[in-house]
Every structure is written in structure tokens, then in C-alpha cells.
Amino acid sequence: MSHDGFRIGPHAIAPRLVLAPMAGVTDKPFRILCKRMGAGLCVSEMTTSDPRFWNTAKSRHRMDHEGEPEPVSVQIAGTEPEVMAEAARHNVEHGARIIDINMGCPAKKVCNAWAGSALMREPERVARILAAVVAAVEVPVTLKIRTGWASDQRNALQIARIAEDCGIAALAVHGRTRDQQYTGVAEYDTIAEVKAALSIPVFANGDIDSPEKAAYVLAHTGADALLVGRAAQGRPWIFREIAHYLATGTRLAPPSLAEVRDVLLSHLRHLHAFYGEASGVRIARKHLGWYARDRPEHTLEQRALFRATVNRADTAHDQLRITADYFDALVAGEPPRLTAAA
Ligand SMILES: Cc1cc2nc3c(=O)[nH]c(=O)nc-3n(C[C@H](O)[C@H](O)[C@H](O)COP(=O)(O)O)c2cc1C
């Protein structure tokens, strides 16, 4: 294995950059895009382990992996070992080649059912869930955790050892406790401690938003790979930028405005095709906001006006036209051209 990659079971993955699972964001169009932009692996959005919800449009979209680059990693969440085992089997039948278990999510919906990071308070249940899922499927099973439930209950190391004992193939650690939600800053000392104690691959996660930060977190933690979440929103090329910096120690030039425009327009078309026009246009809005946020060439007011205008578009045609006009103006170095949706 080259120094810039790592393994999860039989899968060789390079570069050592993973798109972190984000519900409502890391759908198939976004995963394919991030792969193309240099991510080594993209983890899908969390799918429920409750079979009653597997036939909803949302679950069907989340379980659709047609045309997705291998290996497909699918995240599951839940609290009952046998239900989780069944969910893992079901996802493998639908194309998953890696199963990722979510014990890192602070979301209420998950925590009320004592899934997500709340499970870290029950190490014995964690062991039963992990053992059941590992036994249920042939494919490698990975786990994602936080550093603990609260700053005075930082038991990542205990959970990490349980994970390794249960046959987990790789462990991702987000450097926050559950009670921090997404506030404060991620700390990397606990991740370094976990990495030093384990022999399975450990991935560091939290607040990695630049090539320099990525290099720092890798060096500080000794981690085998990095998970990047929010920094990839509207900036999928961050993966190639980080990979280039890790390989050469120099910064890759940012994408040209013409490339940003083309990436965005193709992303929109893919969303429209994947979800159908009405849902695709709605889901595309948050991505549009993220891409526009990072364009300092236009003033704050101009960007806000673009968002307001494009958010009123409710057909794929109008959404694409308004976006293309706005980005064409950026490319031409002109003030934005904004004509409202018909
Ligand atoms: C909108 C959103 C949705 C998320 N959904 C999930 C999820 O479904 N499963 C999970 O394990 N983590 C989820 N996370 C947490 C991320 O995977 C990641 O751990 C966290 O955002 C910290 O990484 P970052 O600082 O690079 O964003 C989510 C985060 C965000 C912002």
C-alpha cells in the first residue's frame, strides 16, 4: 500500500480522504461529485435500521447505488443488535460493500431512540450491536463515534477498544463530545490517544477546512485518514486540494470560475435527474447557497440577491438559467445578471 492510501478490509483506498456522512447532503449526486474531485471514499447518508421505513421515497433514494464508484459505504443507525444486523444484511444486498455504524450523531431524532452518540453511554450495548453486525455480513464494518457523551464522560478509548475487539475494520472519531453538538472547536488529542492504542485504521474528523489544517490534524493524531464534512459543502474540490498539499507540500491553484460554474451546473442537472424535477430543484437550493457563499467576486448584497432570485425558481430550466447567468457574469468579471424566474 502506498504511503498516501489505506485499507478497509479488502478495499485499498487512496487518497486518505473520506467524505463524512451528512444526512440531507451526501446523497448519491454529491458522493459521485466528491469522488470525482479527489475523495478516496464517500460514506452515504445514514439509513434507518427500521424496515418499516425502507419503502419510503427517502429510503429508496438513500439505498440507490447504481453507477456509484466502488466501494460503496452505507451508514446505518439504531439501537437493537438484531435489527441493526438485519439492516446491514439488507444494505449489503442493495450494493453496500462497507457498512458504517453511526454512533457519532447528536441529532435528537436519533438520540431520543438512544441511537447515534447516545449509545456511547452504554458500552455493553455497543459491544452487542457491533458483534451482531460484524457477524451478520461478509463485508467490513466501520464505526463512527464522538470523543464521548460529555467532556467529563470522554470514553472514546473504551469504545474504540470494544470496537477493535468486536472486529470493526476502521474507526472514525469526531473530535467533539455529544453535548457540544457542532459548537466549540474539535480537539485532536483524544483522537491521537485512540490512534496510539489501536491497530485498526483510525480516521480523524472535525473542523478540517483547509489543506494546512488537514496536514496538521494528520501529523497531530497519526490518523490513517481524514473525514471532511461541512468544508466540502459548495467546495467539493477541497479533496483534490488537500490531496495535492499532502503529496507535495504546496497549494494547488483554486478552480477557475468557469470550472466552478461547470461543476455546479452539472451537480444541479444530476440532482434534477436523481430526485425528479420538483424535489431536485428544492434539494439543489441549499447546494446553490453554499457555492454562492464562497464567491467573494460579488458583494454580500449581490450574493443575497442571487440566492433570493434563484430560490424562487421552481423549474429545473429556470434554476439552471439563473445560475448560469449569475456565474457567466462572474466569469466575465461583470456585475451579476439576475432576471427573476418567469
Ligand atoms: C448536516 C449534517 C448532517 C450530518 N449527518 C450525519 C450522519 O447522518 N451520520 C453521521 O455519522 N454524522 C453526521 N454528521 C456529522 C459529520 O459526519 C461530521 O462528523 C461532522 O460534521 C464534523 O465534521 P466536519 O467538521 O468536517 O463537518 C452530520 C453533520 C452535518 C453538518
Please characterize this protein's 3D structure.
This protein is α/β, with parallel strands linked by helices. It folds into 2 domains: 243 residues, Alpha-Beta Barrel (TIM Barrel); 75 residues. Helices cover 45% and strands 15% of the residues. The strands form 2 sheets. An 8-stranded parallel beta barrel has the order 3-4-5-6-7-8-9-10, surrounded by 7 helices. It has a two-stranded antiparallel sheet with strand order 1-2. Helix 6 links the parallel strand 7 and strand 8. The chain is globular, with a radius of gyration of 20 Å. This is tRNA-dihydrouridine synthase B.
In short:
With 342 residues, the chain is an alpha/beta fold. It contains 13 helices and 10 strands.
Taking the sheet with the most strands, its summary is: 8 strands, parallel, barrel
CATH class of the largest domain: Alpha Beta
Number of discrete helical segments? 13
The number of domains is: 2
- So what's the overall shape? globular
What's the name of the CATH homologous superfamily of the largest domain? Aldolase class I
Query: What name does the CATH topology of the largest domain carry?
Result: TIM Barrel
Read across the widest sheet, the strand sequence of neighbours is: 3-4-5-6-7-8-9-10
Annotated CATH architecture of the largest domain: Alpha-Beta Barrel
Bound molecules: flavin mononucleotide
Q: Please mark out the parts with pLDDT under 50 across 5 or more consecutive residues, or reply none.
A: none
Alpha carbon gyration radius:
20 Å
Average pLDDT metric: 91
Helix content range: 40-55%
How many beta-strand runs? Answer: 10
